[in-house]
Amino acid sequence: MRMMKLALLNFRNGFRNYLSLVISLAFTMSVFLNFQNIIYSDALALLGERNKNNVDTIVQVISVVLVCFMFFFIWYSTNVFLTRQKKEIGIYVFMGLTNQKIGKLYMIEITLIGLSALVLGIAFGTAFTGLFQMVLLALSDLVVEISFQFVLQPVLITAGVYLVIYLIFVLKGYADIVRSSVLDMFTGARQNEYIRQSFILLWIRALLGVVVLGTGFYFAVKEGGMEVLGNVFLAVVLVIAGVYLLFGGLIPLIFQGLAGRKSFLYQKTRCLWVNNVIFRMKKNYRTYAMVCVLVLCSVTALATGFAMKARYENIVHFENTYTFQLLSDRKDLDDEARELIEECTPIAFSSYIPITTLEESQIKTTTRYTGYAITSWSALKNLAEEAGLSFELEEPEEDEYIRATNMILFSLITDVTSETAVIEGKTFRQIQRTQEPYLGYLQERHVNLFILNDEEYEKLRPAGRELYVYNYKITDPKAFAAARDRLSELVEQIRQKDGYIGRVAIDPEGEDDRKWIKVLYSLCEFMFMVFIFASGSIMSMKLYNDSFEEKERYLVMKKLGFESRLLGRSIACELAAAYGMPFVVMSIASYFSVHALEKMMFADLRMINVVSVLAVGVVFFVCYRLSVRVYRRNVGV
Predict the structure, then answer these.
(1) pTM for the whole structure
(2) Between 554 and which of 342, 355, 430, 635 could a Cys-Cys bridge form, CB atoms 3.0 to 4.6 Å apart?
(3) Which residues are 470's β-sheet partners?
(4) How many CB atoms lie within 10 A of CB 23?
(5) Residue 193 and residue 149: Cα distance in Å, rounded?
């Protein structure tokens, strides 16, 4: 009972010290709870079963990522708490308490912290469920009526996952205390801290870090075919490993080199903080590397969200390029179809192109597709002029082709020149791939169009079936049904005469079956905020913990006559280096991660990269200012 009272007393007296830890854990749980609530509530049921299933699948994948993040975050948080308490625990040893009793005291105290975070996280997560869904749907540009729903299953899943992970590290901390010696616990907060690392070891780590990170960047931007998926996986692993080696080798090496130059060290307040950064790097470099990886993930998540949004808008535009399309073997159908449509509504623009369809046996490609057709470069150029579409394609040579493909969400094949096609026994090499919607919905769902040199097309035209594509865009969407019915009559007449004809009708005001993509890019924006908050919390907690360990040093310097203003400036520089190192490395690495994303999603994300890096900079600056203020207060400066 006395053990419980002591733990409660410690918890109550030190709650302010644990507040940042409790809030960080509670925030993580509230986000996880709201993601689970998306799956088990009916908030997105109005999107339709298919969209809801797609969203649920995406949320489950993100939930796995959040669980992994929660695992490492709790691991780090409990380690910070244990390190912070070791000196106090050592005092208990001198008071006669056994390691087992001290371990039980630690378990009770850290369990109280964990339960506080759990209650706070569940409470906030449940209270703000409606707000979370409202913001999510607003970012997704979806109109859905939101009503508060309390669903027990997300709460149980969140609490269960959190408690299992937390219990693992509570037991780990208990085992560490039981196995520790008195000296380890009494001096645990300062072991292996003020140690300059071996230059040879730093050089080895630095070289390995540069090589591994450079290799990761290479695989991130390397173009290729289906092996791109493996390249992306290698890039992720190598970049993470490279970042850790960089903070464990190159960056300490740079600081030690600067400290060895007297012309640099003995200016301003550098001698007060540069050496402190060097001495702490061996202990803190893993934290800096973790924060760097987290903010890199946040920038990539935001870029992915904006890329998804741009791709979704382009896909919708792609399918709605034309309102009506007719595919027929009749060459003289344009005037008749145009007259029927114009009886209902004026035509905004129209286009026409002859194509030749091929059987699968007539064409062999590196990658298998459904539906093959060829056309000439000149015919496609004429269609683009009639429809007002962009046309920047150079005419291919006699053994080359350009492929007009559909607007996909992303592609793992980034090297378009590696593909070949054998048409009627002749091998052609792909020189370019375009996603301009020349054939609209037909190109999106049914036809892979190969654009050939005019002469080559004329040679191959007799090998397939020549058809004619007529495309029309109407000005009045409300006249869609009437115009569709008139064209249906024409289609039926031609079929009764044994003519070949197909019709595509895209309602400009029709229901969208890709709404799940809109939710996806909103979720990416939330992931950006989660990772940003997590990285700021980790840095703040780490520096907060360091401030208590530095208190004695700063008290000694004040007694030696150092002014508080000078010491404050030294603290500001030291903390600026702590926040600046992960930020600079992340800024460089983000260029390669976002560039790789650009290639897979066919989007220009340079501005998004700059904006997201600046957003990270703003968050870091706010955390930095708060950390400086708290640090100075804790060390008495």
Answers:
(1) 0.72
(2) 635
(3) 326, 352
(4) 17
(5) 51
